[in-house]
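Take a specimen:
=====
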Amino acid sequence: MTINIIAAVAENLAIGYNNRLIYRISGDMKRFKSLTTGNTVIMGRKTFESLPKGALPNRRNIVLSTTKKDFPGCDTYGSLKEALEHCGADENVFIMGGASVYKEALAFADHLYITEIKATPEKADVFFPEYKEGWKECFREEHQKDEKNEADFAFVNYERL
């Protein structure tokens, strides 16, 4: 099994406010869809509840929750450890939030797919954990702000050292 973390992260590590993404970055959404389609995505309950249409199509959706068990189109487990135990050896798993799930997964993930947003939001209440130590940057692609992307950003891939 390959464990990947995928996130859009502002300069101050902000990832959300009021259970929503902070910036509208069309390029990030397209990259997210391209990387995760056909694979497994694991998310916390609040992340699932933030999705406008529920379970993401063409992916195995896993929701982590200790209180609620019924998420249409999803498998549900009480912990990240339990969810990973129910993934096959050949599964390509993407951890997609929230903050506590990212923090736990960071200790053993194989790859990070980070959209580094070159801005700092005025308001944020959810933050990505510090992540640069122990990782090697292996890909970077810079993008400029435009009508579909609210800020300059870069797609950056990291591999564990």
User: Anything to note?
Assistant: Strands lie at 2-10, 14-16, 40-44, 60-64, 74-77, 92-95, 111-117, 126-127, 135-143, 153-160. The helical segments are 26-36, 45-50, 80-85, 99-105.
